[in-house]
Each structure stands twice: as C-alpha cells, then as structure tokens.
C-alpha cells in the first residue's frame, strides 16, 4: 500500500492548478491526515456512468487533474478500440456547474494534443446534444461535463461511445485501466485552444431541433387551446431549449418559474435540483396556482430528465410518477404508430427491469414487442440498437427515474423531447374533453391497474448489506432454491437473481436472459388467488449507500392493488430487510 506521503507527493508533482495544489499542501502542512486519507487514499472510480463526485482537491474528488487523467486514458483507449478515431473526432459539451466550462476545455486540450479532430460545443448545452452530435458527426466518442441533478458541490464526466450511447462494459473497465496507465499530465489548457477546435454548435442545435420536429404530430392544434403551461428548468440549462422547442411545435409560450429560469450553479431555491425529490416542484406549483395554469413541466438541470404535474378538477395537484409518464408516452407512441399503418409486430419498446410492467401488459394485448433491460440508459440505448438490427422500429424507451427516449436519432433520455411530447398529449386530450388523469384511468381500465411504491433503505455498512442479501438467498434452509416463498400472503411465482445468475423461470439451465448486475439485485414476482400480482425488485446502488426497492402491484381492482402494495412494503422492511435490527435509515 502506498504511503500517504507518496500519494501527496505525486499530487503536488502533477497538479498545475494552484488552488487545488495549495489545498493539498495546506492539509499536509497542518498534518490533517484524516482529511488527507479521505481525499488521497482511494481514487475516484471510473465506471459506466463515467465520473461523478464532489469538487475538491484529491484523488477521490472531481478536479482539473482527475479530468485531465480521465481524458488521457479515454483518448488512448478510443485510439486502440475505434477505427479512424482521431480523424472521426470527439464531441465535448458542458453544462453550467462550477468548473464545467474549464473541464470541457481541459478535456478538449488533451484530445487536441493527441491529434483528434475536436468538436467543442460553445456555451451551455443540454446533455442530449452530445449524443446527438456524436451520431450526426459520426464521431468516435463524446464527453458531457455535468453532474445532472446532483447537489451543487458535485460535478461529473459522462462518456458516450461511437454508437452515441453511454458506455457499458467492458469499455468502463478498459477505460479505467487506460487512465491508470496514463497518469502523467501531457498538457494543460492553452490560450489558443478554441482556434484548434471545431465549432459546430449552432449547426448541431439546428439539426437537433429539425429532428425534434419529427415528433410534432398536431402543430395546427397546439396554439389553439387555452391550456397554460408553467415550466421550471431547476436553475439548469433547459429554458432556452424548451422555449425553442415550444415555438417549433406551435405552442403558445410557457410561463417560466422566474426564480429558477436561468442557469445558476448555486441552485439557490432547491437542496437537490431533482424534480423527483420531495418539495422540488413546490415553487413551480405555487407559480401555476398564481398564474391559473393547469400543468407544470419540469426538467432536471442538464435537461435529460422530465417531470410533470396536472391540477385536478378538485383543485389538487397530481405529480405524475416516472412510471405513469412512461405509460402515457408508450400509449401515445402506440396510437401514433397505429395511425401510420405500419405493422404493429415491427414496433418495439424498451424499459428498465425496475420500471412498471404496464407496457409489458400493453404489448401482450396489442401485439408489439416489449424488452426489458438492466437499469440505466446505457442499457436501454444499447438494447434499442440491438432491436433495430433485428428489424424492429424502436421509437420509445424509458426508465422509472423520469428518463424518456424518443425517436431514432438519440438513444438516450431527452427532457426537451419529453416536455413537448407531454404538452402535445395534453393539447390532444383537452381537444377531446379529457384530462391526463382521466386518460390514465382509461389506460388502467384497459390494461389493468398498476401502482408502484419505490424507495430505499440507507445502510452505510457494506457488510450489513451483504448479510441482508445473503439471508434472502438462504431464507429457507430446507429447500432449494432457498429464496422466500411468500410475501404478504402472496405466493412467490418466480425469482431472478442477477447477482448469482439464477432465473427460476428458465429451466433447465436457470440462466437469466439479462446480463448480471455488478451489485446485488434480485427480482421476485408474486400472485394472489384473486389475480392481483406484485413485482418486487431490490438492489444496491452503485453510487450511494442505499438498498433500493421497486414494488409494483397490478390487477383489475384498484382497491385490492393498493391494499397489497401497502402490505408488501411493510413486510419487506420489517421481515425481509430486518430494518430495525440492522438500523436501516429511511427517507
């Protein structure tokens, strides 16, 4: 194991940023070994999400030196694994967070130094612009500097492969190894950088909006209703993009939440700038009440996620869940596909395995193909591309964490596309005398009631998490497999363990169809005699000290569905997780 002194010495030798260099020097001079151990001992890990963490000096944090080393490792890996990588080039974009612009320029400097054609987007862009540009320019890879909806002290480095989809294995491990083989900084930013990079920003923006217009189905109607939309960009980059999209689709201008309209790296009105977080939409809802608006639209700060709310006829607001929005978009996609008179059996949709099974039920009844994959758009995007190779049309995919993919050009989540697609759905329903809630009720009556309860337990001890999951795998010592056989009085009908590689529904090999998960992940399905069903997935988080769970109950009786959902949530915590015994925290 390297000594702390050697780790500090290497940092001081490499770092040319006087601020972060001095930060580590002062900690060393003050003999603050506790803080230095936290910052220097463990290197921030490059994974399928790239890099994301707190901005500070040290090997475990996000800073200039880490960004340069990551870029050098990525650059060398791409050169070895992508044909004509340097001439095809790299696309780089950034959001508005502290250091984002600088780190985009440092990244560009590394690739320019290595002889790459380097497309550096000027100004702020939303995250979908990078994969769109990679695809449009046929680049060898793309990098977006953003921490999405993380707190203000964080930033990140997101990587897209030549297929314009976020990287998956084995590229993550390959890039990580390449970073560790290219630690010596070869270059820092130069004043002449921008003259050495290509600026195709405006061209790519125009092409993006031209492609977005292909989703526009009812432009003549969009400006002829009195529907009022309030939009919040959560202090992020989306306001200009959504404004242009609204204009392109023929909508009247939305009402902005002015306090959150402009990019602000301080995120002054929200602790967590994530529309999913409790209270994050409060200001937008109050604005809508004052303005007499019936709908609230929201994007996260880098504008790849989307959330919406509708004011009911009783005056109360309903904030739609990620799964409800996914269902609405899937139904919208299906209806548009039917109108096109294309063969339904060539239509395919994709969702992550922890998302609602309602699209699965729709597919069974309507005759299109549904495929589920592991959590994350890196898997959704690659699954969509695989289906296209098989001859399917894949116009939609989603994950329950309010991420939605539309069309064939961007195989990633896009909050701007989701925003105008939802607004167009609203206008269409209003013209039919319906609301989004009433339409959702129609879908429930047609395909069954699907209700979800998604949350997590906090556990900061990895060994305790391991014990909890091992106990689930050895719940019944007298039977094999030894997983639990019932929950809340329901019989468990199938178990898929993506950690050990077991699928009870696939004899004789019992091998799961999905790839294995890097952490703990088990999915149970259960059924009552009255036909009510439950899908329960529990997994560890790759970035947080959490055991996440996703529970969905479905059936034709909404009361029975709600009752069983409550019971399953209770038994999961008290009996399966033993939350009290293990001192598990709850949100």
Which parts are unreliable, with pLDDT below 50 for 5 consecutive residues or more?
Answer: none
Please, what is the CATH homologous superfamily of the largest domain?
Alpha-D-Glucose-1,6-Bisphosphate, subunit A, domain 3
Distance between the termini: 37 Å
How would a textbook summarize the main sheet?
7 strands, antiparallel
Strand percentage lies at: 15-25%
Indicate the CATH topology of the largest domain: Alpha-D-Glucose-1,6-Bisphosphate, Chain A, domain 3
- Mean pLDDT across the residues is 95
Shape: globular
Structural class: alpha/beta
Structure description:
With 587 residues, the protein is of the alpha/beta class. It has 3 domains: 196 residues, 3-Layer(aba) Sandwich (Alpha-D-Glucose-1,6-Bisphosphate, Chain A, domain 3); 100 residues, Alpha-D-Glucose-1,6-Bisphosphate, subunit A, domain 3 (Alpha-D-Glucose-1,6-Bisphosphate, Chain A, domain 3), CATH 3.40.120; 128 residues, TATA-Binding Protein. The chain is 39% helix and 19% strand. It contains 20 helices and 21 strands. Strands 15, 16, 17, 18, 19, 20 and 21 form a 7-stranded antiparallel beta sheet that branches. Strands 1-5-4-2-3 form a 5-stranded mixed beta sheet, sandwiched between helices. Strands 7-6-8-9-10 form a 5-stranded mixed beta sheet. Strand 20 and strand 21 form a beta hairpin. Helix 12 runs parallel beside helix 17. The chain is globular and about 70 Å long. The model has no long low-confidence stretch (mean pLDDT 95).
């Amino acid at each position: 194991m390297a000594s702390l002194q050697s780790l500090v010495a290497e940092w001081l030798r490499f770092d040319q940023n006087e601020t972060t260099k001095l930060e580590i020097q002062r900690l060393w001079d003050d003999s603050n070994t506790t803080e230095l151990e936290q910052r220097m001992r463990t290197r921030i890990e490059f994974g399928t999400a790239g890099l994301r963490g707190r901005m500070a000096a040290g090997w475990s944090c996000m800073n200039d030196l880490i960004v340069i080393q990551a870029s050098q490792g990525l650059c060398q890996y791409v050169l070895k694994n992508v044909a004509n990588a340097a001439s095809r080039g790299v696309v780089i974009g950034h959001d508005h967070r502290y250091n984002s612009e600088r780190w985009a320029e440092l990244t560009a400097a590394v690739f320019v130094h290595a002889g790459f054609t380097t497309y550096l987007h000027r100004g702020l862009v939303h995250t979908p612009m990078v994969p769109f540009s990679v695809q449009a320019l046929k680049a060898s890879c793309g990098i977006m500097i953003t921490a999405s909806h993380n707190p203000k002290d964080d930033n990140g480095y997101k990587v897209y492969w030549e297929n314009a989809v976020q990287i998956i294995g084995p590229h993550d491990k390959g890039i990580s190894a390449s970073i560790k083989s290219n630690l010596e900084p070869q270059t820092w930013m130069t004043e002449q950088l921008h003259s050495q990079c290509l600026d195709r920003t405006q061209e790519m923006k125009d092409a993006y909006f031209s492609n977005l217009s292909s989703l526009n189905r009812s432009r003549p109607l969009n400006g002829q209703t009195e529907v009022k939309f309030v939009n919040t960009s959560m202090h992020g980059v989306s306001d200009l993009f959504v404004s242009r999209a609204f204009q392109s689709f023929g909508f009247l201008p939305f009402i902005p939440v002015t306090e959150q309209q402009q990019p602000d790296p301080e995120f002054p009105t929200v602790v967590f700038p994530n529309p999913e977080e409790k209270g994050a939409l409060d200001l937008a809802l109050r604005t809508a009440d004052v303005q007499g608006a019936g709908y609230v639209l929201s994007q996260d700060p880098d504008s790849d996620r989307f959330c919406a709310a509708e004011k009911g006829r009783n005056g109360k607001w309903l904030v739609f869940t990620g799964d409800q929005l996914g269902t609405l978009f899937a139904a919208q996609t299906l209806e548009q596909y039917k109108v096109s008179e294309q063969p339904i059996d060539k239509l395919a949709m994709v969702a992550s395995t922890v998302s609602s099974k309602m699209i699965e039920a729709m597919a069974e009844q309507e005759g299109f193909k549904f495929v589920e994959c592991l959590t994350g758009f890196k898997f959704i995007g690659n699954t969509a591309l695989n289906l296209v190779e098989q001859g399917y049309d894949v116009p939609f995919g989603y994950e329950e964490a309010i991420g939605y993919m539309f069309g064939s050009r961007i195989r990633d989540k896009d909050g701007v596309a989701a925003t105008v697609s939802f607004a167009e759905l609203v206008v269409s329903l209003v013209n039919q005398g319906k609301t989004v809630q009433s339409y959702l009720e129609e879908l429930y009556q047609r395909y069954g009631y699907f209700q979800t309860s998604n949350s997590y337990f906090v556990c900061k001890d990895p060994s305790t998490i391991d014990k909890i999951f091992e106990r689930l795998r050895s719940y019944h010592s007298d039977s094999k497999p030894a997983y639990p056989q019932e929950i809340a009085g329901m019989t468990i009908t199938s178990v898929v363990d993506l950690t050990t590689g077991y699928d009870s529904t696939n004899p004789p090999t019992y091998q799961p169809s999905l790839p294995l998960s890097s952490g703990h992940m088990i999915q149970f399905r259960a059924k009552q005699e009255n036909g009510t069903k439950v899908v329960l997935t529990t997994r560890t988080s790759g970035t947080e000290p959490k055991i996440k769970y996703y529970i969905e109950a479905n059936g034709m009786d909404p009361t029975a569905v709600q009752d069983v959902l409550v019971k399953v949530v209770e038994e999961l915590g008290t009996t399966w997780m033993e939350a009290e015994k293990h001192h598990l925290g709850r949100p």
